[in-house]
């Protein structure tokens, strides 16, 4: 590389030497005990860790081409750092709190939902959401079928494969899936809920890891076979030209602020329904983000949001997607304890969990294709985003698949799709246990 080429190299959008100096200052301050654990310090530390990992992943030819690139390496690298305490534990805790207690994850998802839904034209929006729930059910059916196939190699009964493998993985995460599933199990069997939960969370964690890696592989498959995927913003085949971001209007900072205000207002509506007006449907809790998606879809369907506000929301979402996804992958990685995962892994659990994930991908992708969707994008959202650990799992999967603009569909999978699985679980537990 010539001196001119070296001079032009950029890391995280800045000249490479400036980014390196900033990262070294942040890391040096941490190791010398001068960095705080407040939000600005944690934000800075996550970038200082994530940027080098991302840039390394982007520059490793085999890793970047076949496995998942910088985003996936940031996720894996941070789970290694957290597991083996390669930085002081108080900073691991602060990163965990940043995504958890401070709840940057929800703020991030709120911005992405608002921008991704409002960027779609009305007719495309309605068609895509109408065909989405059959794709979710297709993914669940595929997961059950391949779970039974995989379990045949180990002599596991079909009933146990459905109740203890397919349901936990496809249940919409931990708080909205494994925990209520364990309570349903206890009500039906009379055993303690911890009996079911202790196994379900292991299977769910294994499935979540597979979902992230397979999402990265599906992204590579889409690059190799472009006809199987769209532009990563809509599911319907041939609908790419209907995205408002293609229009010539350039949103102002006031438009961006208005888009943010609308997103926060929509999230508040979700909280109102989830906590006060309609917290349960048929006895099952509905998450505030599911209500938020529905509300934003209604706003878009009735065309009552001015175009400049829609464009502002889209502009803000684009900034978050391009420049802050790295923070999400670092935060999610810090939440994963590799030692706990490794101690619970058995060969049968690995194989059956992998079969469940593959079944979800094939089932969702096939049904998605039949209803006019791109199979890869449908497999990622209706398949893999059903088969992960809820909100954080959605972001990790979409980040690995480079499809953050599909967050609204992912949230429908985790939230409303997860509620559907709980209803089905009540029936299946009664029949199979």
From TrEMBL:
Subcellular localization: Cell membrane
Coiled-coil intervals, chain numbering: none
One function term, GO molecular function aspect: symporter activity
InterPro entries with a match to the protein in the record: 2-OHcarboxylate_transport
Primary site of residence: membrane
Record key words, sorted: Cell membrane, Membrane, Symport, Transmembrane, Transmembrane helix, Transport
A cellular-component GO term for this protein: plasma membrane
Membrane-traversing stretches: 12-33, 39-54, 66-84, 104-120, 132-156, 195-218, 256-277, 289-307, 319-338, 350-371, 412-432
Superkingdom as given in the UniProt entry: Bacteria
Family statement: Belongs to the 2-hydroxycarboxylate transporter (2-HCT) (TC 2.A.24) family.
Name this polypeptide is given: 2-hydroxycarboxylate transporter family protein
Organism, scientific name: Tetragenococcus halophilus (Pediococcus halophilus)
Organism placement in taxonomy: Bacteria, Bacillati, Bacillota, Bacilli, Lactobacillales
